[in-house]
TrEMBL record:
<dbReference type="GO" id="GO:0008270">
    <property type="term" value="F:zinc ion binding"/>
</dbReference>
<dbReference type="InterPro" id="IPR038632">
    <property type="entry name" value="ZFYVE21_C_sf"/>
</dbReference>
<keyword id="KW-0863">Zinc-finger</keyword>
<dbReference type="Pfam" id="PF16696">
    <property type="entry name" value="ZFYVE21_C"/>
</dbReference>
<dbReference type="InterPro" id="IPR013083">
    <property type="entry name" value="Znf_RING/FYVE/PHD"/>
</dbReference>
<dbReference type="InterPro" id="IPR000306">
    <property type="entry name" value="Znf_FYVE"/>
</dbReference>
<feature type="domain" description="FYVE-type">
    <location>
        <begin position="33"/>
        <end position="93"/>
    </location>
</feature>
<keyword id="KW-0862">Zinc</keyword>
<keyword id="KW-0479">Metal-binding</keyword>
<protein>
    <submittedName>
        <fullName>Putative membrane trafficking and cell signaling protein hrs</fullName>
    </submittedName>
</protein>
<dbReference type="InterPro" id="IPR011011">
    <property type="entry name" value="Znf_FYVE_PHD"/>
</dbReference>
<dbReference type="InterPro" id="IPR032031">
    <property type="entry name" value="ZFYVE21_C"/>
</dbReference>
<dbReference type="Pfam" id="PF01363">
    <property type="entry name" value="FYVE"/>
</dbReference>
<dbReference type="InterPro" id="IPR017455">
    <property type="entry name" value="Znf_FYVE-rel"/>
</dbReference>
<dbReference type="InterPro" id="IPR052113">
    <property type="entry name" value="FYVE-type_Zinc_Finger"/>
</dbReference>
């Protein structure tokens, strides 16, 4: 990793493309000062006493009241808290919860009953540990040999089901592409006790991860 300085602040970034987390996004292009005469949020007119401020999350221009908070922004790898607008604040705090808590849970993994589709009419169940790789790019399946690490970019859809016995969202269906074919696998937090709770929390964290990837694949490029 290396330390770089941008107009928004200091950032610690990974140098090699194949080692960068898919959850990290690049800084937005700042709207030029000359293109904006009013605050993007409240429409107050800028002047001698009302200065312009750029949100580091979206790049839009705001007045001080609409862009006064400084918040940690790990998704852009900033070292220190940076100025963000009111609109971006709630999104950023939710993302920060993901970076501070959910990613650790995902990389630690959880025990699941794994169901894979061998062919059209045949399925195979095995107990294993599923976890996110340390570079956040792959799902790893420890304890089984029937499936290779799954690239997150190959996941086509995700669906969470409620276990009728426990009433909890403890079943995860993943549709993914492999060699041009669409395949399905199912993870179920099948063990009672503490491990089952870990599995349920892992599924919730992975659902949040998938939503982040899906949204930002549409919105902007990943660095």
């Amino acid at each position: 990793k290396k330390l770089i300085k941008s107009k928004s602040g200091l950032r610690i970034v990974t140098e090699k493309e194949d080692q960068r987390s898919p959850f990290i996004i690049q800084e937005p292009q700042w709207v030029p000062d000359k293109e904006t005469t009013n605050c993007t949020n409240c429409s107050v007119k800028f002047g001698f006493t009302t200065r312009k401020h750029h949100c580091r999350r979206c790049g839009q221009i705001f007045c001080n009241l609409c862009c006064e908070k400084k918040v940690e922004l790990p998704r852009m790898c900033f070292v220190d808290p940076v100025r963000i607008c009111l609109t971006c604040e709630s999104l950023t705090r939710r993302e920060n919860k993901f970076f501070q808590k959910d990613l650790k849970l995902l990389t630690n993994g959880a025990i699941f009953l794994f169901r894979s589709q061998k062919n059209v009419n045949t399925y195979q169940d095995q107990l294993m540990r599923c976890k996110l790789s340390l570079d956040h790019r792959y799902l790893l399946f420890d304890g089984i040999e029937i499936i290779e690490p799954l690239d997150l970019n190959h996941i086509l859809s995700l669906k969470v089901h409620c276990d009728k016995l426990s009433g909890s969202n403890s079943i995860l269906d993943l549709e993914y592409s492999q060699n041009g074919d669409s395949k399905m696998l199912t993870l179920a937090a099948a063990i009672d006790g503490p491990e089952k709770k870990v599995g349920i929390n892992w599924i919730a964290a992975f659902q949040e991860a998938y939503n982040m990837l899906d949204k930002f694949n549409d919105d902007q490029p990943v660095i």
